[in-house]
Amino acid sequence: MKKTPSNTAVSKPWKNYLTGFPSLGKRPLIVGVLAGFGEATQILKAKERPFDLVEWRLDLTGQRSGMWVERCFELEQADIRVLLTIRSSAEGGKWFGAEDERLVLYRRGLEVVSMVDIEINNRLLSRVVAAAHEVGRPVIGSFHDFSETPPRAVLEEVITRGWKTGVDVVKLALRLKTDADLPLLLDVLKTGTPQRPLCVIGMGAPEARLELARAGSCLAYGFLGQFTAPGQIACQELATQLA
Fold first, then answer.
1. pLDDT reading at 219 higher than 90
2. Mean pLDDT of all residues in the chain?
3. Which of 125, 137, 141, 218: disulfide with 167, CB 3.0–4.6 Å?
4. Are 201 and 231 contacting, i.e. CB atoms less than 8 angstroms apart?
5. Which helix (H) or strand (E) holds 169?
6. Given this model, what pLDDT does residue 16 score?
7. Would you give the end-to-end CA distance of the chain in angstroms?
8. Bridge partners, residue 144, by sequence
9. Do 231 and 203 form a contact (C-beta atoms < 8 A)?
10. What is the pTM of this model?
11. pLDDT tens digits for 66-106?
12. Residues with Cβ < 8 Å from 47, sequence gap 6 or more?
């Protein structure tokens, strides 16, 4: 069941990971968020796929005695690339277990999935990056604030730390509370480059999610069954709006 790893053990430009995506360069890659095993079954049977890849939220689906690995493998075999996320409770997720156990799960997932997401503020970051790059898989380093949009200096520090640790994409997901927040995020988004791409999400307002996606965010997230973040848009609607 193991995927054949890449021949390289070093980080590559993000675009080098993305061969085969028809939408690449035309719009953000659409990520369909899977929060349950039933949703995975449905998309395997569906004729339409309003996404470029899916995010398997293991902290939400649960492990089911290892069945999650088999299901991720089935998705990959069906030409559906999988992004594995085990979101810590410290950043809005449902993972309350030991960090060493989470690292074991990431390593197990890297045998079958195409990429992983880990929080930039987590002590596992460098170890997950090393494990992923060893088998030629990209890493999304993420930062979430469900209460507010922090000052620009805080965001710049997070972004810099992510790049220094070797992540391939920095993802910022922040709650919009004031009129100044969206302009700030749009400005921060401009600092991204093809070599150092940014995913920037304004939580709480669907319109802001779309505006950031159209302004150059490299990824846009939509739910497939139930929403998993404030203001999240259904995947099908997201695909329609960004077409």
1. yes
2. 90
3. 141
4. no
5. strand 169-175
6. 64
7. 35
8. 173
9. yes
10. 0.91
11. 999 999 999 999 999 999 999 999 999 999 999 999 999 99
12. none
Per DSSP, helices labelled H in 13-151 are 14-17, 37-45, 58-61, 67-77, 99-109, 125-134
CA–CA separation, 118 and 69 (whole Å): 18
User: Residue 108's CB: how many other CB atoms inside 10 A?
Assistant: 16
Residue type, 241: Q
**13/140: higher pLDDT:** 140
Residue 94 burial by Cβ neighbours in a 10 Å radius (0-12, 13-18, 19+):
middle
Structure tokens at 151: 């000052």
- Is 72 within 8 Å of 78 (Cβ atoms)? no
- At 121, the amino acid letter reads N
Q: Are 211 and 218 in contact (CB under 8 A)?
A: no
pLDDT at 7: 32
Residue 162: exposure state from Cβ atoms within 10 A (0-12, 13-18, ≥19): buried
Mean pLDDT of 163-184: 96
Assign a CATH topology to domain 27-242: TIM Barrel (3.20.20)
